[in-house]
Write a structure and sequence with these properties.
Number of strands: 3
Structural class: alpha+beta
Amino acid sequence: MENKECYACGRSMNYTEKELAKRYKKDFEQNGVVRYFFKRNKKADTEFARAESFKHILPILEKRKHIGAEYAHISEFKAD
């Protein structure tokens, strides 16, 4: 059963965020540049960070899960 709110599927992203995620996923596949995409809460915009920066953001997101914080590795992005 597919979740209609699938974060990695990009359903909660606007057009610009999806296009940026596609570009970053391609950069990961071709050049190995590791990035994560995340939201700080349910209504926040999607943000992107390289792995080096994300390790500092992750503890904050873990504490904010109860208000809808989400994150995923760029390789998990699945939107067309």
